Amino acid sequence: MKVIEVEHLHKRYRDHVAVADVSFAVDEGEIFGVLGPNGAGKTTTVECVAGLRVPDGGTVRVAGLDPQADRNGVREILGVQLQSSHLPEKIKVWEALDLYASFYAKPADWRELLDRVGLTDKRDTLFGKLSGGQRQRLSVALALVGNPRVAVLDELTTGLDPQARRNTWELVEQVRDSGVTIVLVTHFMEEAERLCDRVALIDAGRVAAIDTPAGLVAQVDSEQRLRFRPSGPIDDSVLLALPEVATVSRNGGQILVTGTGNLAQVVTMTLAHAQIIPHELRLEQASLDDAFVALTGRSLSEETA
Amino acid sequence: MKKILIVETKLHLREWPAMLFTIGLPLGLLLILGSMPGFSKADPALGGESVNDTHMPAMMTMLAMMTLAFSVLPGFLASYREQGILRRMSTTPVGPARVLGAQLVVSWVTGIITTTLIIVLGRLVLGTAVPKQFLGFVLMFLLGSAALLAMGLVLSALVPNGKTASGVGSLVMFPLMFVGGMWIPRESMPDVMRIIGDYSVAGPFAQTMRDTWAGNAPQLTHVLVVSVALLVFGGLAVRLFRWE
User: Fold this and answer.
1) Predicted-assembly ipTM surpassing the 0.90 threshold
2) Range of the domain at A36
């Protein structure tokens, strides 16, 4: 079942077009990624879904409801964690949850939520005293406090250190396992690759592709590169005889094999057969970033670097 | 609505230096200045009244209400907007208007408490009479303070962030307090200034407080100016206020 349907969404701000033409549908129970560089129109798209902005064209439906015509209906079932939206510095963690719970008809038990996001011992801490990771976890809890069917999480891990980012990812997976559909807006391809069931690649206000992360990578169909340092001499022809192998080149003691398919397995098996151990074995595969470059001619990671 | 009122009250109390200033300054000035010997003597410049009879307590009521309307309220609202707090509220079923309502209520109640303390302490310490036209006083206070808060809302709508809010707030507040008679009693003002004062909300607010305090009926022009201001600024605030 489709929980969110966006068709030909179009949104302009005065003289520039933020979203040119975006269509996608989110299935119940999945983590749907909206991935693209900064300024691609991701946030504007989810703001239209949340009913915070009025689209200039196209249709948006959340569980069949129009976010403009049926604001309250949508707000009861859609939890939103917005990029760069804070709480008052001096509000305590429990007060924020208790207050936001009171806004909904059928709220979740916020004490249980507090436990789920691992903030029980920060219950009485002021928002201003929380670390970045703790703030984001509280933010996720606030997005869930209304017992939503769908949670929109916008740039959830931006500005977090790697450990806090990993903890937040685990939290997102737990939330999905509890039955909430998640729309994850991000410009980190690593995050999309790790968490998302399906990803919409957005570039310059348009959808470049929608597929599973693996499906997007496969669309690129780029070759794999295998590097290693063999423990003994081996002839190029042995490797070139394998149908998966395209080229073999050497750089000092290091061999670089390129090819497709099960390249890593067939090469290591062949080496094992010849009783050669591949030291410093490294497989370089296409990533979502390569897919993005291939589909849009632009790199995601340039933005994040 | 109850929960958000409790939370906003707590948030105001946690900003206790600002609240102490808002409530403490008018009360402190009332007690310290009011204790000066000349202030309880009949003053020909005030038409035979003493400063403490109506001028001093009315000025302190105005000071408290203006601090709330032009400093506390815009400070909170502008920083709420700046930090995306109002934006976050607009993703929930209740919407951000409720925070705004709670802010207004907290400011208004703070003003009412401060004014009550001014009356009580004035009576106990300085021997100032309780407002003699009491009902009129209450009505004019509620009307006038609502008009001032509406002006504060318009200010909150126009300033971009919390820092500008306090600067612009003072810029509006001091001239208004001046024409309201804070530093020169309205009786001693040149005619031009008093007429300007009569149409500034501050003048009518201060004068209706003084008139009802002395037991007289407020002047019709003053009641009209304050009522029109409440409608105009209230309407402007609704039209101009931005949530993000």
Assistant:
1) no
2) 2-218
